[in-house]
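Problem 12. The chain below contains 82 residues. Write out its predicted structure in token notation.
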Amino acid sequence: MRYIAFQEDRIKKKEISAGTLRNYIKAIKLFFTMDDILVNWDKIKMGMSAVNQTSNGRIPEIKITIHIIKKNREEWSNISYY
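Solution.
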């Protein structure tokens, strides 16, 4: 629990994100599972920060989509079948 509290402080300082802490916990959980160490993960997850699941992606414009399709057609048309 001290490790999680330490990482929570790092989240507050914006050194890491909440998603990074989740990944750290996943690694620890796998280690404990492989060594048959029983831990109540529900209680641990309750104390953790919520993760923002937003994407930085955007929908490609029509021009870009058409360009990608044309490029792929050119590449696939150059393949010779034996």
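Discussion. Residues 1-51 form one domain. Students who got a different answer should revisit the alignment rule from Section 12.3.
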